[in-house]
Design goal:
Length: 349
């Protein structure tokens, strides 16, 4: 089945769909810092580099599905939470514009859990209604999922809109299956050695990394970062991998940060040398990117951004598999009904 992808980023969502058997034929990404990474890791997908705002619907290939994660910063609880009033939040409308024109069998849109806060309730209901009424209309399913339940070693709550075109006569059901939690020990313990600090001004070490992308951001930690414990132990799962390297979790080799008073913690005295940020490669592992998926950048911040903005590959694959199975099951049921009708007509003839 042919899929097109918007706001593709490095392509975590796309890779999950490819692993589930979909053919991602075309993708769109506007951020030039990402283009090399996407093209080298998705050599069989055409990459459109325009803003979605400037893409006429008739220039998007015919497809069976449209997937994507419109930029989430404007919906974030940690940010300004301006939602649909922000230009980035309004990109949902262009995603729906393309959906309405192409009328694929299904769509999937992903966003941050901050969409669910009360101040966005009216805008969220409006978006749902636009999805339901796009073209001939879609049966919409909506749910918040935590990636930690789907073979991802990370607490990461995100919301998913999944729609099935109404003429297919069924509604997508989110699977109830979950999986045992994967720990940091399982995910990244083989990367304990060899991580390099970034070069001056947080430039990349490039080919000097023995393990590709196994380098970490240097520099001070903000008071906001130091207001909470940022260390998860080896037998736990990671905190959410964010798009900013300065906010990357601390490597589990370090002890939990010491509480001083409300909103103030410090690194355990005498153990400060153990507190480093997770490397770009460690973050990629936690986002379940495979080892041969190489991120290309000059500034290390760009590596963290690509990874933190991605949908974890394993979660994407799980959802893609379930969509594929439900579409095939529905098609099979239709064939059975037609066969039964033909048999009845033959008997009565």
């Amino acid at each position: 089945m042919r899929v097109v992808s918007f706001f593709a980023g490095a392509g975590g969502l796309d890779l999950g769909f490819q692993q589930a058997g979909f053919n991602v034929i075309w993708a769109n990404e506007y951020d030039k810092e990402i283009w090399e990474t996407y093209e080298k890791n998705h050599p069989h997908t055409i990459l459109d580099k325009r803003s979605i705002v400037n893409i006429p619907a008739d220039e998007v290939p015919e497809c069976d599905g449209i997937i994507g994660g419109p930029p989430c910063q404007s919906w974030s609880e940690a940010g300004a939470a301006r939602g649909i009033k922000d230009k980035r939040g309004q990109l949902f409308y262009d995603f729906i514009r393309i959906l309405e024109a192409k009328q694929p069998q299904f769509f999937l849109a992903e966003n941050v859990s901050g969409m669910l806060i009360n101040k966005h309730s009216e805008a969220l209901e409006g978006i749902k209604e636009l999805f339901r009424n796009a073209g001939v209309g879609y049966e919409l399913s909506f749910k918040m999922l935590n990636a930690c339940d789907y073979n991802v070693p990370q607490d990461r709550k995100r919301v998913f809109f999944i729609g099935i075109r109404k003429d297919l006569n069924f509604k997508y059901e989110f699977p109830t299956q979950t999986f045992p939690k994967i720990t940091l020990e399982t995910a990244i313990s083989d990367l304990k050695e060899g991580a390099l600090p970034a070069l001056e001004y947080n430039n990349s070490n490039g080919e000097n990394c023995v393990v590709p992308n196994h380098e970490y951001m240097i520099g001070s930690f903000s008071t906001i970062f130091m207001s909470r414990n940022r260390v998860r132990s080896w037998d736990e799962q990671s905190y959410t991998i964010q798009a900013g390297g300065r906010h990357a979790p601390i490597h589990p080799q370090a002890p939990k940060m010491k509480f001083i008073e409300k909103n103030i913690r410090v690194f355990v005295p005498g153990q400060e040398h153990l507190y480093r940020r997770l490397s770009v490669r460690e973050c990629a592992r936690i986002q379940t990117f495979p080892n041969d998926f190489i991120f290309h950048y000059k500034k290390i911040a760009a590596g963290y951004k690509m990874i933190g903005n991605a949908v974890p590959v394993n979660l994407a694959k799980f959802l893609a598999n379930s969509i594929m199975q439900q579409l095939k099951s529905n098609e099979m049921n239709k064939k059975v009904v037609i066969l039964e009708q033909n048999e009845k007509e033959a008997i009565t003839a």
